[in-house]
Amino acid sequence: MGEERTIVVTGGGSGIGRATAKRFGDDGDFVVVADINEESAEAVAREITTAGGNATHVVVDVADDSSVGALAATVEEAHGGADVLVTSAGVLQNVSSIRNMDMDEHDRVWAVNYRGVYVCCREIGRGMAERGRGCIVNISSTSATAAFPLHAYAPAKAAISHLTALLASDLGPRGVRVNAVAPGYVLTEQMQARIDAGYRDQGAMERQSALGRMILPSEVADGIHFLCSDAARAITGISMPIDAGWLSRVTYVQHSGWPPTDWDPDTD
After folding, report:
1. Could you tell me which residues are beta bridge partners of residue 137?
2. Which pLDDT tens digits describe the chain residue by residue (268 residues)?
3. Within 10 Å of residue 262's Cβ, how many Cβ atoms?
4. Which residue from 48, 58, 193, 260 lies 20 to 30 Å from 32 (Cα-Cα)?
């Protein structure tokens, strides 16, 4: 355990954000759990403190510039600024066609998943640049790499990967590293709700990865924690897949010679 850092996690009240907040809390860092849902944010902060860590919670709507500005100001004034920012706040989208996608939903996805990330990086990244140190980790997705029937979510995640590279180049000379993780199918509360409602097929998602399973939020949190550690001090500008081998498997099985003629799925 090293020197205590101040960690800001947006979307920290659930899913990947919750797992990430708890991971840093377990490591002895001070965690600011920021979420639009105050009850959830407070509960996660309480989980961390009950386990012996240090945390507080702040209400933030990343789609509201003034709310993000208030978060940045609070962190600067009360905690001396953020050492790490994890922009985990986001919303999912169900499969749709461009012919019938609701534009209000489209705009909401972009307002949270892209613009919200941009504004958080800008407002909190300023303080990091002034102090000459800091780490930012954004949440991209494997859906950023291919054509998914997610006509707002996937393009927004592709934009996050590109933004991450831009910010790494912009802020790197000021001592700030910026990376992203690109999870595959993660079994978050939001995903579980969609599985239960019949919008997603858990078995199909599991079969699409090389390891034949979905990813746990804690496994994404471990990757984020690594990118913010000294072990990753030379790494910036990347989008690191955490996908149980989805990227390799999905192309592998599309080969015209797959499966081989002697392949037995029950034994091979």
Report:
1. 86, 179
2. 457 899 999 999 999 999 999 999 999 999 999 999 999 999 999 999 999 999 999 999 999 999 999 999 999 999 999 999 999 999 887 778 888 888 999 999 999 999 999 999 999 999 999 999 999 999 999 988 888 877 888 899 999 999 999 999 999 999 999 999 999 999 988 889 889 999 889 999 899 899 999 999 999 999 999 999 999 999 999 999 999 999 999 888 887 677 777 767 666 5
3. 6
4. 193
Classify 6-252 by CATH class: alpha beta
Helices and strands: H and E segment counts in the chain: 10, 7
Catalytic residue positions, numbered: 153
Task: Provide the whole-model pTM.
Answer: 0.92
Closest to 154 (Cα-Cα) out of 138, 172, 141, 170: 141
Q: Which of 59, 58, 60, 63 is nearest to 78 (CA)?
A: 58
Q: How far apart are the first and last CA of the chain?
A: 44
Residue 183 pairs in a beta bridge with: 242
Q: How far is CA 251 from CA 140, 145, 164, 201, 256, in A?
A: 20, 12, 25, 20, 11
Distance, in Å, from the CA atom of 17 to the CA atom of 3, rounded to the nearest integer, reads 22
Q: How far apart (Å, rounded) are the C-alpha atoms in residues 120 and 10?
A: 9
